[in-house]
Amino acid sequence: MVGGTSDKSSKPATQAVNSGRRKEWTGAVVNPPVWRGSTHLYDDVADLRVGVKSNEDGKFFYGRRGSPTQWSLADALTEMEPGAEGTMLYPSGVAAISCAMIAVLKPGDEVLLTDSSYDPSRSFADAFLKRMGITAHYYDPMIGADIASLFTDKTKAILLESPGSLTFEVQDVPAICVAAKKADIVTLLDNTWATSRFFPALEHGVDISIVAATKYIVGHSDVMLGAATTHQKYWTQLRRTAQQLGQVASPDDAYLAARGLRTLEVRLKRHEQSALKIAHWLKERPEVGVVLHPALPDCPGHEIWKRDFKGSSGLFSFQLPDADEQSRAAFIDALDLFGIGYSWGGFESLALPVDPEKYRTANPWSQAGKLVRLQIGLEDVDDLIADLAKAFEHYNNQPS
Ligand SMILES: *Cc1c(COP(=O)(O)O)cnc(C)c1O
């Protein structure tokens, strides 16, 4: 049969092409069409009654439960994550993180978050969860198995992010998950940087693997979408909570994400190669201090990255040890091929000033100078290097 779902034993590139493309969802065309709809029509009242009762995945019910367009994407993401039972889609990455946390926490619980967490994850914990009577504590991302020393009998969940998306510490995810499992604590990982392609999270012990699909899955900077994938133990809980909170990803957005997914393998490889070339080039520049790229020895957790990851993607930071706010801005402003903006994972390169000292609480950030974060896109890498070289020239010639 042509199309249809791929074999679980297929290689990643084959899975990226074929997964989720069930004949019943695609019909005669290659991509599952966009099924827009709120109302799903039933044959008769008896049929309607059956639909209400079953709440099955992949069955028509009502627009909020999705249509073949969303089911196909969710199915593909499940298939690409070894050990997974199912995937819920959300209208953004932040929605995926917050809803997954709500699914596993209740008033009175404590949750541990890595100090390298994405800032909106922190805000969700510090503002919303606090209001719900759930207390957040932050831990050093390099804590490893010692995380057990932070457990109380109220600790119910851990939010990991590896590498951190500003400072890139690679966490000892397996060690943290072993400790958590012993204490019956749920582990949630923000896996946006690596995706299941470079870090199959559930295989490393994670319970719920979350991605901002907005980034690499969509890949074209034109859609907001989140996904949470989990194994059997938490699947019903995750799914029911998303339904109760009314979470739905639009069919148009799911369609575009599925389209992006088909080229994920080639895009990630190109992001990887170009980012590595630029990271090594930056390391040789006299203006640059540490290069926080998981595949370079400067990066905390580099050895763990070598042990656990199948690759590296296109996002990393570097330090300008002599920079202040103004000279860093002058460097970034002098770039022509790098846009200035949030988000990443699209085809285009981006540069962003990042200031981890503003967020950290468990282990304050005290490196000299300033950090710049780069998202390396799919442009010709030598053009990007020439652009960076030109910006350094400008940086070095600023009036003091
Ligand atoms: C962007 C991002 C998110 C949030 O995704 P949105 O789709 O923008 O809500 C979560 N985690 C990380 C690491 C991100 O970079």
From TrEMBL:
<keyword id="KW-0456">Lyase</keyword>
<feature type="modified residue" description="N6-(pyridoxal phosphate)lysine">
    <location>
        <position position="215"/>
    </location>
</feature>
<dbReference type="GO" id="GO:0019346">
    <property type="term" value="P:transsulfuration"/>
</dbReference>
<dbReference type="Pfam" id="PF01053">
    <property type="entry name" value="Cys_Met_Meta_PP"/>
</dbReference>
<dbReference type="GO" id="GO:0030170">
    <property type="term" value="F:pyridoxal phosphate binding"/>
</dbReference>
<keyword id="KW-0663">Pyridoxal phosphate</keyword>
<dbReference type="InterPro" id="IPR054542">
    <property type="entry name" value="Cys_met_metab_PP"/>
</dbReference>
<dbReference type="InterPro" id="IPR000277">
    <property type="entry name" value="Cys/Met-Metab_PyrdxlP-dep_enz"/>
</dbReference>
<dbReference type="InterPro" id="IPR015424">
    <property type="entry name" value="PyrdxlP-dep_Trfase"/>
</dbReference>
<dbReference type="InterPro" id="IPR006233">
    <property type="entry name" value="Cys_b_lyase_bac"/>
</dbReference>
<comment type="similarity">
    <text>Belongs to the trans-sulfuration enzymes family.</text>
</comment>
<dbReference type="GO" id="GO:0047804">
    <property type="term" value="F:cysteine-S-conjugate beta-lyase activity"/>
</dbReference>
<dbReference type="GO" id="GO:0019450">
    <property type="term" value="P:L-cysteine catabolic process to pyruvate"/>
</dbReference>
<comment type="pathway">
    <text>Amino-acid biosynthesis; L-methionine biosynthesis via de novo pathway; L-homocysteine from L-cystathionine: step 1/1.</text>
</comment>
<dbReference type="InterPro" id="IPR015421">
    <property type="entry name" value="PyrdxlP-dep_Trfase_major"/>
</dbReference>
<feature type="region of interest" description="Disordered">
    <location>
        <begin position="1"/>
        <end position="23"/>
    </location>
</feature>
<protein>
    <submittedName>
        <fullName>Cystathionine beta-lyase</fullName>
        <ecNumber>4.4.1.8</ecNumber>
    </submittedName>
</protein>
<dbReference type="InterPro" id="IPR015422">
    <property type="entry name" value="PyrdxlP-dep_Trfase_small"/>
</dbReference>
